[in-house]
Amino acid sequence: MPDRFHPAIRLLHWTMALLIVAMLFVGVAMISTAGPAYASLIAVHRPLGIAILLLAAIRLAVRLATGAPPLPADLPRVQQRAARGAHILLYLAMIGLPLIGWAMLSAGGYPVRLTAALTLPPILPQDALAYGLLRQAHGLIAFAFFALILGHLTIALIHGFVHRDGVFETMGFARTPVRRPEPQVPEPGVPEAQEPDEPDAEPDETPAS
Amino acid sequence: MTSSRPPLSIVAAIAAAPVLLLAGFAWAGGWIGPPRIGGATIVDALERSGGRYAGYRRAHAKGICITGRFDASGAATGLSRARLLARGSYPVIGRLSTGGGDPFATDGRNVFHAMALQLTGPDREIWRMAMDHTPIFPVATPEAFVALQRASRPVPATGKPDPAAMKAYLARHPETKAYQDYIAAAPLPDSFANGTYYSINAFRLIDRAGASHAVRWAFEPEAAPGALDKAKFAELPTDHLFTDIGARLAKGPLRWRMTVTVAAPGDATNDATILWPANRQRVEAGTLTITAAQPEENGACRDITFDPTILPDGVALSDDPLLPARSAAYSSSFRRRALETPGPSAVGKTLAAKEER
C-alpha cells in the first residue's frame, strides 16, 4: 500500500490548488467591479476555467488508476466517511464548475472565447432561462467550493500539525515521508483495503498511460 | 491520534490560514474595503431611475428584432484583420430600440434611438455592437453614469427628479450639460430607418501586422432624413417608430453604410462625451441591409445581450472605461431578466390585439 499519493496527483493537487484559489478570487472580483479590471478578469477567467477542467480530467483519470493511500485505521468511521464525501465533492466541483460555466455561456449566447484564435463551441442551445439558472448555480457552487476548500485546508493542517498522523504528508514532497504508526489491531468492521475516498480503484490496476 | 490539547500557538497558526484566505476572498469580492461600482450597482441605479420591469432589459426595454446581412466592402482590411471586414456577405441579427426601462413607453420622447447588431462571420465568429443615434454620450465613466441615474431618480412626491439633485450633479459634470444642450437642439429622427447609429465608444482595429488603430464607427442611413416635431410629442402615436419600421420594411429592405473614422494622434479614446474633429480619415467598411423585423416574442434578438465588448479577432477594446462598464451592466441586466418570465413586447402586444379583433 503506498503511503503517499502518486507523484502526478501530488503535483496536480498543488498546481490546481493555486489555480482554483486564483480562479475563485478572479470570479468574485470580476462580479464586484465594472471598472477596467472587469474585461481583463473575464479574459483570464474563461481560459483558466477550461485549463482547470482539463487538469481535473487528467487528475481524475490518474486518481482512479493509482488510488489513494489509506487513512489511519484509528480515524473514526464517521470521519473516514466525511473525508470520502468531501473529496468526491471537491472532484465534482473541479469538473462541474467549469462545465457549468461553459454551459451557462452557451445558453446565454456568449461566445466562449479563450484566446484571439480559439473559441470553444457551445455545449447547450441558446436559452435565456437555462442561462439564468446555470448562472445562479455557477455562483452558488463557487461559494460552496470555496467553503469546502477552506474546510479541506483546515482539516489537512490539523492532521499535519495536531494529529501528526501522516495524512498531511500523503500530499507532500518531503524526501522521507513520515511513517504513520501502524495500528496494532485493525478496527473491526473496516474493510481491509481502506480507500475511503476511492470506491472504484483496483489496487492492482496499472497506472493509466 | 493525540488526545492532549494542542498548544494555542499551533491552533492560532492553523486558524490563520483559512482566515487569511477568507479575508483575501472578501477583499477580492469587494465586501470589505471601499464601495465599488459593479454591474449590479449600475443596474440598480437604472431600475431606481427608470423603473423596474421584470422580464425586460433594464435599459432600452422597448425594442423590435431585425434581420439582414452585412456586405463588407473590404476597404477596411488595411486597418483590421477581422474576417467580418474582409469582402463578403455575413448574416446579421439585430434590435432597434428606444432608451429607458419601460417596454411600453411612448415614442414621443427625446431619448436614444438605438441599433444593436450581431454580425456572424466564418467559424461562428461574432461581433456585437450596441449603438445610439447620438455621436456623443452624456457621461464618460461608470461613476458618472451611476451618479446621473441617482440624480434622475424620481421623487415619490412629484414623480419627477429632484431639481436640486440634478443641479448639483450637472455642476460637477459639465459634459452631461453639454450633452443635454446638444440633444435638446439636435433633430430627433422621425424613423429608425433614417437615424445614424454611432459606436459611442472608441475601439481599436488590429491589422495583419498587429498594429492597432483607434477608431469609432457609425452606420449612416440611405433613407431620406426626417425629424420628429418635439413640440408635438403628445400627438405622436405611442408606437410610432415601431409601426413605421414595419411599414418601411414591408416595402423593401433598408440600408446603412458602415463608416469607420480613424483617430488622429491625440484624439481621446477614453472619453465618449467628446467628438473627434470632422476632418479625420474615414473608410467605408461595408453596407448593412435590413430585410425584416420581428416582434421580440418571435425574433432571435430577445435573448441576446448586445454586449459591445464581444468582438472578433482584429477588433479590440480601447481604454474607454465605459466599455467594461457596459459589459458588466448588460450582463447583470441579462442575469436578472433571464430568471424572470419575459413579457410581451409593445409590437407583439399590438399584433396580438389586432389578431383578436
How would you describe this structure in keywords?
heterodimer; A: 209 residues; mainly alpha; Fumarate Reductase Cytochrome B subunit; two-stranded antiparallel sheet; 2 strands; 59% helix; elongated; disordered C terminus; B: 357 residues; alpha+beta; Catalase HpII,  Chain A, domain 1; ten-stranded antiparallel sheet; 8 helices; 29% helix
Number of strands of chain B: 10
The percent of residues in helical segments of chain B reads 25-40%
Gyration radius of chain B (Cα, Å) is 23 Å
Number of separate domains of chain B = 1
End-to-end CA span of chain B:
82 Å
Q: What is CATH's topology name of chain B?
A: Catalase HpII,  Chain A, domain 1
CATH architecture of chain A: Up-down Bundle
Question: Could you characterize the architecture of this molecule?
Answer:
The complex is a heterodimer of chains A (209) and B (357). Chain A has 209 residues and is an all-alpha fold. Chain A has one domain (7-70, 78-171): Fumarate Reductase Cytochrome B subunit. In chain A, 59% of the residues lie in helices and 2% in strands. Chain A has helices spanning 7-32, 37-66, 77-107, 128-163, and strands at residues 112-113, 119-120. In chain A, strands 1-2 form a two-stranded antiparallel sheet. Chain A is elongated. With 357 residues, chain B is an alpha+beta fold. Chain B has a single domain (37-132, 181-356), classed as Beta Barrel (Catalase HpII,  Chain A, domain 1). In chain B, strand 3 (113-120) and strand 4 (126-132) form a beta hairpin. The longest helix of chain B has 21 residues, at 8-28. In chain B, 46% of the residues are buried. Chains A and B meet through helix 1, helix 2 and helix 4 of A and helix 1, helix 2 and helix 7 of B.
